[in-house]
């Protein structure tokens, strides 16, 4: 096929392309995905470049080539549809984040997660609310000053949610779990909770009718958020437990391991689609479904199915992530959006600068205060404090924006990936530039920053302190779930109750976790599967 023929075929994509053109486009895009995988392998040892950056750069190069071949008519191989992203691309990414959370290779991560639970939840929930408020208010204040003030209140709130979602994958690729385990745990945990919180909050904002609320906007957003969070979590846990029970009761693996794997995959996808059907948060539902499946269902399948599910879910997530960053690279050169946007170059740069400024300020506004509060609440605990250098790394590492931000922006400001509104087109192009800039610049600089802020001897020191508590307090007895027969005396039970209450007041999260493990071993695992923790 000649260059002119390729150009005509590629230019037809996104419109009413014929089946042959679509097949050509899919073949080309698949080949480019393979190129990203090979390039990522060759750059594996490079400390400055991760796979997200690789996919962005390759996407930009491919977009430039297509742009030249089509004589400026097109820069895409395929047209992005936000519904395609939410229905097919996002579920495997989020499910794998939950499913991989409790598997054996993540045990250190899980232990660290619960050890730093309150800090992580503060970062991932309260931090998102603070960031949304600052980004929304900042854009509302400064956008009109640069000649861009045509957005309504709900759009400004949506912008806050869009740019408060961090890119977990890109962040974790440049932080080494073995070198800085607690730091890794805080960034990982925040990323997991942050994405879910940002999407749930975005959905709550979309459901708002600003014109009828007036003074009750904040309370309405919070109430909708709590409703979506609670109901989506319950739905995900319920489907995960149902899957675990079916696998345990029927033992499908005795006839075919394929059925086990298929059931887990289909039930996970069902949880996401059912949540969307009920106007809940599919992201939160499939995430908790993944956690429950890995905690219970994973133990009810054959050894071959355990290996298969772990790798197939990780592979689907990897391909989906690469797809998104590859598309973002190509979308940076989308001439249609740049033509639709009526903003001048100066205005576009001003909008980009305002967004970056308030992303930086919004993140700083909660990372440093919450870290200080966490250190003060820890008191004389055996946990090492979050040092100022750690706080800087956490602040910096969470500045990258990625797939979720792109998807939310398309969901709010386009229809099937296309918009004819100049204001919305400007927001889309600004979002792409922000994602591109933060992933490339902050992604390039995160590892050197960690090297400069945390010398190797400091990392080794923190590694020795942050894997959890070895305090005798960890081994105290929980009378409410005690199985010891010699603890039946009222005096002993009373003394144990006093110790338990004292520990609950001193270390509430740790104490609740111990109670949960006792309850899990005694009631949940015998029904839904999994080895007991002791």
UniProtKB/TrEMBL annotation:
**Primary location:** membrane
Describe the reaction catalysed, as an equation.
K(+)(in) + H(+)(out) = K(+)(out) + H(+)(in); Na(+)(in) + H(+)(out) = Na(+)(out) + H(+)(in)
Protein's cellular compartments: Membrane
GO biological process: one example: regulation of intracellular pH
Membrane-protein topology: Multi-pass membrane protein
Q: Where is the Cation/H+ exchanger transmembrane domain?
A: 31-450
Which Pfam families does this chain map to? Na_H_Exchanger
| Annotated GO CC locations | plasma membrane
Keywords, ordered alphabetically: Ion transport, Membrane, Potassium, Potassium transport, Sodium, Sodium transport, Transmembrane, Transmembrane helix, Transport
Question: What residue ranges are annotated as transmembrane?
Answer: 23-43, 55-72, 84-102, 123-144, 183-205, 225-247, 281-299, 311-329, 349-373, 393-413, 425-446
**Any idea which GO molecular function terms this record carries?**
potassium:proton antiporter activity; sodium:proton antiporter activity
Query: Per its UniProt entry, which superkingdom is the organism in?
Result: Eukaryota
Under the heading PANTHER family, the entry gives: SODIUM/HYDROGEN EXCHANGER, SODIUM_HYDROGEN EXCHANGER 4
Q: What is this protein called?
A: Cation/H+ exchanger transmembrane domain-containing protein
């Amino acid at each position: 096929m000649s260059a002119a023929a390729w150009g005509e075929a590629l230019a037809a994509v996104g419109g009413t392309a014929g089946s042959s053109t679509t097949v050509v486009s899919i073949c080309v895009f698949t080949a480019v995905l393979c190129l990203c995988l090979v390039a990522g392998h060759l750059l594996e040892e490079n400390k400055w470049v991760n796979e997200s950056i690789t996919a962005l750069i390759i996407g930009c190069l491919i977009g430039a080539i297509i742009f030249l071949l089509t004589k400026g008519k097109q820069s895409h191989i395929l047209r992005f549809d936000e519904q395609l992203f939410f229905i097919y691309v996002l579920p495997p990414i989020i499910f794998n984040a939950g499913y991989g959370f409790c598997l054996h290779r993540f045990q250190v991560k899980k232990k660290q997660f619960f050890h730093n639970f309150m800090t992580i939840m503060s970062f991932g929930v309260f931090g998102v609310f603070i960031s949304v408020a600052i980004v929304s208010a900042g854009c509302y204040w400064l956008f009109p000053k640069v000649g861009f003030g045509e957005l309504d209140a709900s759009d400004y709130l949506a912008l806050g949610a869009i740019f408060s979602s961090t890119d977990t994958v890109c962040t974790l690729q440049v932080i080494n779990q073995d070198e800085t385990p607690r730091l890794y745990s805080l960034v990982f945990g925040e990323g997991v909770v942050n994405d879910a919180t940002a999407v749930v909050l975005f959905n709550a904002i979309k459901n708002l009718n600003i014109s009828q609320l007036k003074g009750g906007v904040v309370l309405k957003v919070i109430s909708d958020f709590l409703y979506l969070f609670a109901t989506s979590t319950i739905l995900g846990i319920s489907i995960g437990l149902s899957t675990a029970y079916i696998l345990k009761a029927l033992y499908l693996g005795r006839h075919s391991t394929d059925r086990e794997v298929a059931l887990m995959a289909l039930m996970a996808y069902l949880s996401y689609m059912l949540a969307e059907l009920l106007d809940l948060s599919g992201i939160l539902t499939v995430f908790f479904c993944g956690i429950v499946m890995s905690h219970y269902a994973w133990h009810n399948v054959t050894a071959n199915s355990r290996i298969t599910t772990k790798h197939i879910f990780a592979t689907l997530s990897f391909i989906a992530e690469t797809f998104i960053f590859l598309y973002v690279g190509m979308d940076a050169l989308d001439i249609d959006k740049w033509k639709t946007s009526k903003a001048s170059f100066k205005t576009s740069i001003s909008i980009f600068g305002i967004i970056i400024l308030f992303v930086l300020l919004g993140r700083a506004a909660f990372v440093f205060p919450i870290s200080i509060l966490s250190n003060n609440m820890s008191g004389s605990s055996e946990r090492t404090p979050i040092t100022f250098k750690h706080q800087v790394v956490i602040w910096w590492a969470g500045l990258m924006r990625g797939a979720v931000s792109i998807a939310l922006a398309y969901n709010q400001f386009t229809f099937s990936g296309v918009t004819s509104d100049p204001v919305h087109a400007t927001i889309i192009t600004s979002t792409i530039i922000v994602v591109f800039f933060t992933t490339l610049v902050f992604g390039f600089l995160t590892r050197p920053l960690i090297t400069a802020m945390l010398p190797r001897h400091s990392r080794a020191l923190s590694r020795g302190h942050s894997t959890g508590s070895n305090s005798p307090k960890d081994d105290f007895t929980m009378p409410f779930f005690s199985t010891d027969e010699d603890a039946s005396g009222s005096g002993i039970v009373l003394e144990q109750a006093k110790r338990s209450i004292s520990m609950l007041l001193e270390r509430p999260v740790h104490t609740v976790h111990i109670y949960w493990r006792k309850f899990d071993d005694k009631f949940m695992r015998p029904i839904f599967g999994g080895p007991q923790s002791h």
